[in-house]
Specification:
The protein is an alpha+beta fold and 759 residues long. It is 40% helix and 14% strand. The strands form four sheets. It has a five-stranded antiparallel sheet. Strands 3-14-15-12-11 form a five-stranded antiparallel sheet. Strands 6-7-8-9-10 form a five-stranded mixed sheet.
């Protein structure tokens, strides 16, 4: 009996019909009756991704896998979508999971995947190495326990996230769970959310001060607030729009200090309609709502939204969805039995200190199950389901820090729960500390990964996890986040100490590096974004953290926070802390620098040969690149001093130096005139697509062109963005130069004009 027949009436009719349609579309694509471009968006809207395959190697320190797949995944063309398994993203609104759902996820991980359930930074679950032919049955089995993969990806409203402590938090204004659920149900599949140019992310937070909701980095962010009118307390939301991380992060703008709860859904609909109508469609790099809000200005954007709201016909779902959301799934208010102290067990005490949160309901706690790299095996997933039934009333939430939260646990039951978690290797202490590191998939499975974010995170988790309880409390509370590339899927911009993967060419070898990002703020709902402070070889990143931590402990003033400390000493002093670590020893002396964490193979972009002429040209190019990096750092210093015009000009100048360095690879000395540099760069590298790569196409080149054409940027926020853009432009210059150097060694024809040196 097929799963379709077996599950029958257990699947809601609308979901069953959608899955049947998707299964038919797979068959039609096999027959060539659906265009690949159309089918790609179709499968993405069902959460079905292609993924990267690295010859069966998982670069997270766990060693080689037994699976063997094509080395390029889906990158060679549409036909290979049938030959290589991919990734299935599973939408978990608010991260809210039931034990039955966890049991199903465990079974699916075993039967269709590599036996691992991965918790993401948006409270989703991902299964890797899933074949597309298996996805319809996988979706049916999820639908039977109330889970959909619809709009888990694609140009849609992505998973609606919310505080995992909503309903039990001691500091919340009110429980946002029913409103987040109402928003999710209303926007899912809504006709007004189907014509976006890019994704749209929504987050809810019960308070302003903590980081649980990360409202400031969302397209639509909502913070619970109340207002007293005529003696009656009303609920509403402090509403923000236009935030987002990605390559260049934007802080969300305040849309309304108090949006009444009854206006939540109609205003969300109106925002969706304005975004669908006016948002960029052709240039994907500019298609997020953050660009629309920045372009129009928040006042004009709000005017358009309110006009759209006034024109909307009444929809009974606006109130029905909120009313139907039901009561929040919090603990009972009745006191529980007296707590136990765990009989003086040191390990238990360490774990309770970092992983147990006392709820607002007396006698109850929320327990964090810390998952290294966000991973748990199928057996562990089943064990969490059993423990949720036994100890937590079935209440489980995934968190944006890639952990699980068991809520409403009686304090008296905590020792027994700890023993059960220990038996399942799930009692790792250090939740919410320096050792609890967020990481995107990086080079493990992401086709955009440059360096191994998971490999680095695994190394740092091991190093600092062993020191839980030994570190200074001010250091222990810092957050570290890593991304495999500039796109910030690991949320490096809002970490105390963030990293994103880049590559550098050293002596003809590609060397994995990470940019060190400082100045981000995790608290206050992602209150500020950091800036890159320098690229360091991957193998020296642990030393960077050790130095920063040691200096912070030695130099902090009283109760000074890390953010206050970094602002006080300034970017120059921060960079000087680890500047000497940027040096890469020769390959023959230290070959370990030329491989990535968790992967013994040499990190390479191809075997590169260096001839005399090429050597001379590269040296000139590298000279310009080095000058560009220095000038960009000076731009950060000027911005720190609020010298906005100087910061803007220096960042622009850094891009010009990078572009000039590339032009020199074609034996041309273009001089210093901006017009000449931009013209030659556009002609020789942008129009010919030599500057393009699989990570960003040519969008980073557009950063230079836009600044060249528009002139100076007058605000600190605009200068901050230009510095981000200039850093990405320089990274693209490094990557382009490495590709050019690799071509002759790979037996490929030389690049255009470089074949005939010019005077």
């Amino acid at each position: 009996m097929t799963w379709k027949e077996q599950l029958g009436g257990r699947i809601p009719a609308d979901l069953a019909a959608e899955i049947d349609t998707f299964e038919s579309q797979i068959a039609l694509r096999r027959q060539g009756k659906i265009d690949e471009k159309v089918f790609a968006e179709t499968r993405l809207r069902r959460g079905v991704y292609g993924q990267r395959y690295d010859n069966g190697q998982r670069n997270d320190g766990t060693g080689p896998k037994t699976l063997e797949f094509p080395s390029d995944g889906l990158t060679k063309g549409p036909e290979t979508v049938w030959d290589a398994p991919g990734m299935q993203r599973i939408k978990i609104p608010m991260g809210h999971l039931t034990p039955d759902q966890l049991d199903t996820l465990a079974a699916l991980a075993e039967e269709y995947s590599d036996g691992v359930c991965h918790v993401t930074t948006r409270q989703d679950i991902q299964l890797h190495f899933v074949h597309i032919d298996d996805t319809p049955d996988l979706m049916r089995r999820l639908a039977a326990v109330g889970i959909t993969t619809r709009e888990a990806c694609g140009n849609t409203v992505r998973n609606v996230t919310a505080c995992p402590l909503a309903g039990v938090c001691r500091d919340e204004t009110f429980d946002v769970t029913p409103y987040a659920e109402a928003c999710m149900r209303f926007l899912l599949g809504h006709p007004d959310t189907q014509d976006f140019g890019h994704k749209f992310k929504v987050a809810f937070s019960g308070c302003r001060d903590h980081a649980c909701g990360l409202v400031a980095m969302h397209d639509l962010g909502l913070i619970a607030v109340t207002r007293t009118e005529n003696g009656v307390e009303r609920r509403g939301f402090e509403t923000y729009v236009g935030g987002g991380l990605g390559a260049v992060p934007y802080q969300a703008r305040l849309f309304d200090p108090f949006l009444p709860v009854e206006e939540l859904l109609p205003v969300a609909q109106a925002i969706s309609r304005v975004f669908a109508r006016l948002g960029e469609k052709r240039n994907r790099a500019r298609a997020r709502i953050k660009f629309l809000v920045a372009g129009l200005g928040i006042d004009e954007f709000k005017r358009l939204v309110l006009a759209e709201r006034a024109a909307l016909p009444d929809d009974p779902r606006w109130t029905a969805h909120v009313d139907a959301a039901g009561k929040p799934n919090g603990a009972p208010d009745a006191p529980a039995a007296a707590p136990s102290n765990g009989n003086g067990d040191t390990a238990f005490g360490q774990w309770t200190r970092t992983n147990v949160y006392r709820q607002r309901q007396p006698g109850y706690v929320a327990v964090t199950v810390a998952l290294p790299l966000g991973d748990m095996t199928a057996d562990q997933t089943r064990r969490v389901a059993d423990l949720a039934r036994q100890f937590a009333g079935g209440d489980v939430r995934a968190t944006v820090e890639q952990n699980l939260l068991l809520r409403s646990v009686r304090e008296a039951d905590v020792p027994a729960l700890y023993r059960a978690l220990s038996a399942a290797a799930l009692a790792r202490p250090g939740a919410g500390t320096l050792a609890d590191i967020t990481a995107c998939p990086g080079t493990d499975t992401c086709k955009l990964g440059i360096a191994s974010s998971r490999g680095l995170a695994a190394e740092l988790t091991t190093r600092f996890g062993a020191r839980t309880g030994e570190l200074d409390p001010a250091v222990e509370s810092l957050r570290i986040k890593t991304s495999g590339c500039f796109n910030s899927c690991g949320q490096h911009h809002v970490a105390d100490i963030g990293f994103y993967g880049v590559s550098r060419n050293v002596g003809g070898y590609a060397v994995p590096h990470f940019q060190v990002v400082l100045g981000g703020k995790w608290r206050d709902n992602a209150g500020s974004y950091g800036l890159a402070s320098g690229a360091i070889p991957s193998k020296r990143i642990p030393e960077v953290i050790e130095r920063i931590a040691a200096r912070f402990v030695a130099e902090r003033e009283q109760s000074e926070t890390f953010q206050d400390y970094t602002q006080r000493i300034g970017k120059r002093a921060l960079k000087e802390m680890f500047a000497d670590l940027a040096a890469v020893p020769p390959h023959d002396e230290a070959p370990g620098f030329y491989s990535d964490w968790g992967d013994p193979r040499e990190f390479t972009l191809g075997d590169m040969g260096v001839g005399e002429c090429a050597g001379e040209v590269v040296s000139l190019t590298e000279f310009d690149f080095a000058a560009a990096e220095a000038q960009l750092f000076d731009a950060q210093l000027r911005l720190e001093e609020n010298a906005v015009e100087q910061a803007d000009q220096l960042a622009y100048g850094a891009m010009l130096l990078g572009a000039r360095g590339l032009v020199k690879t074609e034996f041309i000395d273009v001089g210093d005139a901006p017009e000449a540099i931009v013209r030659e760069f556009r002609t020789r590298f942008f129009d010919t697509q030599l500057f393009f790569d699989k990570y960003a196409g040519g969008k980073f080149g557009m950063y230079l062109f836009r600044r060249h054409e528009s002139g100076p940027r007058a605000t600190a926020e605009a200068a901050h963005r230009l510095i981000e853009e200039a850093q990405l432009f320089l990274e693209a210059c490094h990557a382009c130069q490495a590709r050019l150097a690799a071509r002759p060694a790979a037996g490929l024809p030389p690049t255009s004009a470089a074949a005939a040196p010019r005077a």
